[in-house]
Amino acid sequence: MAAPIVQLRNVSKRFTRDGFEIVALDHVSLEIQEGEFFALMGPSGSGKSTLLNLLAGIDRTTEGEVEVLGTQLARLNESQLATWRNAHIGYIFQTFNLVPVLTAFENVELPLLLTKLNKAQRRKNVETALELVGLADRMDHQPRQLSGGQEQRVAIARAIVTDPDLILADEPTGNLDARSGEEILQILSTLNRELKKTIMLVTHDPHAASFATQERHLEKGILTEAAVAAV
Fold first, then answer.
1. Most Cβ neighbours (<10 Å): which of 40, 169, 197, 210?
2. Rounded CA gap, 104 and 227, in Å?
3. What are φ and ψ of residue 128, in 5° steps?
4. What digits encode the pLDDT tens for the residues 119-160?
5. CB neighbours (10 Å) of residue 143?
6. CA–CA distance, 158 with 109 (Å, rounded to integer)
7. What residues does each domain of the chain span?
């Protein structure tokens, strides 16, 4: 059996704010297998986004080990982490995080500017990613010319344009209406089922979590034991 794509071993994360210690994650251990669509549920402030940031190498643990794709992230310096992240991680944010003065094409191309691909190769990858999310006809539009759902689809295209091994989605439907949210969840499901992408979704929405193949819950930084296979 292949090793899990994600392994968290006894991970804790604490912050100090106004002289008080805040425990965001409390001795969390977790494994995610390659090809899983994994939903992590929990209310706001439960530590979900903190856990995603640890998996992406954006933040570091207070205790414990984070291993992703066989790499122990604590052993990488900031420069190495940035290179590793661009090669292996696709990150989808709740707030889209698009550059307003760039077109959809240019926003999606951004991660590829850090690679060795030439201009023609970059164009092919960007066009493929935008086609996958149904926005091939919007590539010359700026974010202000797009709906919220379209902006999030551009953000998904940007996350997958480097063909990442792991897609991290932080409340990707949180700023969308029900119809647009459903479209985003269908895209993520297609990426998982047809392209075999491993996805880690954090959400407080049971409907969003129902698209996943595995579900766990975080409550005040503590991960519940029972994993539930989605219907």
1. 169
2. 38
3. -65, -45
4. 999 999 999 999 999 999 999 999 999 999 999 999 999 999
5. 19
6. 7
7. 35-58+83-223
